[in-house]
Design goal:
Helix 1 packs antiparallel against helix 2 and helix 7 packs antiparallel against helix 8. The strands form four sheets. A 13-stranded antiparallel sheet has the order 5-1-7-8-9-6-2-3-4-17-16-15-10. Strands 14-11-12-13-26-25 form a six-stranded antiparallel sheet, sandwiched between helices. The protein has eight helices and 26 strands. The N and C termini lie far apart (about 55 Å). The protein has about 425 residues and is α+β, with helices and mostly antiparallel strands.
C-alpha cells in the first residue's frame, strides 16, 4: 500500500483517531489503527472497548491495500513533518502465510520515519448494524442536545445507568404540546433536559425501538468534537449499539444496557414551584466565580444565597474566612396578589451552579423554588428556566444544613431509591 496525503489532513485525522485508540491496555491492538484505501480516499479506523471510529480523508492512492500501525507513532510522525508538506506512506506487501511486513515508512521532504506494521487481518473486523432503526438529525441539533445536558451526567460507575445521555421522543407538555426529541442527563443530585423538534423519521424510528438509547458519556464526549461542523448526521440503532455517520466520519458505540429513570416526572413536579426570581445570567455567574474560592469543603463547595426584595445576597465561608457579595434581581415573587413573599435562603453547590449557568443560554435566568417549610415531592429542588431558551430545563437539589447558617451542608438526592 502506498499513498500521498497532505500533512495537515493526516495530523487532523490522527488527532481524532488517537482520542479513541488506547496508548496502553490489555489488548495491544487497541493502540493501533487500521489504514485501508477506498477509491481515492483512505479510511483510518481506531477502537477502544466501547467505541469504533472510522475517519476518511482524501489522498493520492498509488497502490491500494490495507495495514495496521501504532496510532501514537503515526500521529507523532505526522506532526514531525514540515507544515504544508506532502506525506508519503508506504507499506510493503505482506509476506506469504499472512506474515506482517516488517516496517512501513513515512516520508516528507528529508524526514523519514520507520514504523512497525501488523497485518490488516489482525485488526478486529468491522461492525455491521444490519437492519437497524435509522433516522437523521442536524449536527447543530445533536450538538445542542448533548452539549446542554452533558454536565449533569454521572461519573459514578456504581450508577452506570446514569453515566450517559438518554434520548427519547415525548410531547412538550410545557410548550405547544408537539412531539420533540428530548435529551436527559442526571447524577441524582441535579438534572438537565433539552429538546429539539422531532421530525417524522425521528418519531417513526423511536416508535420502533423497544428501549430508547442511553449514550455513554465517553461517546458523548467524542460526538461533541465531531458535531462542530454543520451538516446532517445519520443515526442507527441495533443490537445494543448506536452509530453516527457524518460526511467523513463513522462512530459506532455500545449503548448502556439499562432503563433510565423518569426524570420528566420530576421536571413536571417542579413546574409548580411558585417562588421565582429573575437574574442576569452573567451577573450570577460572576457572583459564583468571586465567592467560590471562599466556599468551604474539599469536594462540595457551597454558597448560601438569600433572596429578599430585589437583592440576592450570597455568602461563603472557609475556616475563619468569610466572603459576602450581592447582586440585583428582578424581585422575588410568588405569583400571588398582595405583598412580597418572605425572604428565602438556599444552599447550592458552586459546581452545580456554575455548570448550569455555563450550559444555559441567553442573558437571563430564573430560579424557581418552594418555601422551605413546604414538604412535598420535589420541594428540595431549585429549577433553572432560561426565558431566552425555553428548550432548556435544569434542576439542582438544595443542600441541607444543620442549625448553623454556615454548617457543612450535605447533598440531597433527586431520587430517594438511589
Amino acid at each position: 500500500m502506498k499513498f500521498l496525503i497532505e500533512r495537515g489532513t493526516l495530523v487532523d485525522t490522527m488527532a481524532a483517531i488517537t482520542r479513541v485508540a488506547q496508548r496502553s491496555g490489555e489488548l495491544p491492538i487497541r493502540a493501533c489503527v487500521k489504514i485501508e484505501t477506498q477509491g481515492d480516499r483512505i479510511a483510518i479506523t481506531g477502537l477502544d472497548a466501547h467505541v469504533w471510529l472510522t475517519v476518511k480523508a482524501a489522498a493520492e492512492i498509488q497502490q491500494p491495500g490495507a495495514t495496521v500501525v501504532n496510532a501514537a507513532l503515526l500521529a507523532d510522525a505526522a506532526k514531525a513533518c514540515a507544515p504544508g508538506s506532502q506525506v508519503e506512506f508506504n507499506a510493503p506487501p505482506a509476506a506469504e502465510d499472512n506474515a506482517p511486513a516488517a516496517f512501513g515508512t513515512v516520508k516528507a521532504g528529508k524526514a523519514r520515519f520507520r514504523l512497525p506494521l501488523l497485518p490488516a487481518a489482525d485488526f478486529p473486523s468491522g461492525k455491521d448494524l444490519g437492519d437497524a432503526t435509522a433516522w437523521t438529525i442536524a449536527a447543530t441539533d445533536l450538538r445542542f442536545l448533548l452539549g446542554r445536558v452533558s454536565h449533569a451526567m454521572s461519573t459514578d460507575d456504581t450508577k452506570y445507568y446514569l453515566n450517559g445521555v438518554f434520548l427519547t421522543v415525548a410531547r412538550d407538555v410545557e410548550g405547544d404540546g408537539g412531539l420533540v426529541l428530548r435529551a436527559f442527563a442526571t447524577d441524582s443530585s441535579r438534572a438537565a433536559s433539552a429538546h429539539v423538534a422531532a421530525e417524522a423519521d425521528v418519531v417513526d424510528a423511536f416508535a420502533e425501538l423497544t428501549r430508547h438509547p442511553i449514550i455513554p458519556r465517553q461517546t458523548v464526549a467524542h460526538l461533541l468534537r465531531f458535531t462542530e461542523a454543520d451538516g446532517a448526521v445519520g443515526c442507527k440503532v441495533a443490537d445494543g449499539q448506536i452509530s453516527f455517520e457524518f460526511a467523513d466520519t463513522l462512530l459506532i458505540s455500545r449503548l448502556l444496557d439499562a432503563d433510565f429513570p423518569d426524570v420528566e416526572q420530576v421536571f413536571t413536579i417542579t413546574a409548580r414551584h411558585n417562588l421565582k426570581v429573575a437574574l442576569g445570567r452573567s451577573d450570577l455567574s460572576d457572583l459564583v466565580a468571586r465567592l467560590t474560592p471562599f466556599a468551604g469543603g474539599a469536594k462540595e463547595k457551597s454558597l448560601v444565597v438569600e433572596f429578599s426584595g430585589t437583592v440576592a445576597a450570597a455568602s461563603a465561608r472557609v475556616d475563619a474566612s468569610e466572603a459576602n457579595d450581592e447582586i440585583a434581581t428582578g424581585g422575588l415573587t410568588d405569583g400571588q396578589p398582595g405583598g412580597a413573599p418572605a425572604p428565602i435562603s438556599v444552599i447550592l453547590q458552586t459546581k452545580f451552579l456554575r455548570d448550569c449557568l455555563e450550559a444555559g443560554a441567553g442573558d437571563r435566568v430564573e430560579l424557581a423554588m418552594l418555601p422551605l417549610d413546604v414538604k412535598v415531592p420535589g420541594s428540595a429542588t431549585v429549577r433553572f428556566p432560561f426565558p431566552d431558551e425555553p428548550r432548556l430545563r435544569m434542576m439542582v437539589q438544595r443542600m441541607r444544613a444543620s442549625h448553623a447558617r454556615h454548617a457543612h451542608p450535605t447533598p440531597r438526592h433527586l431520587f430517594r431509591r438511589w
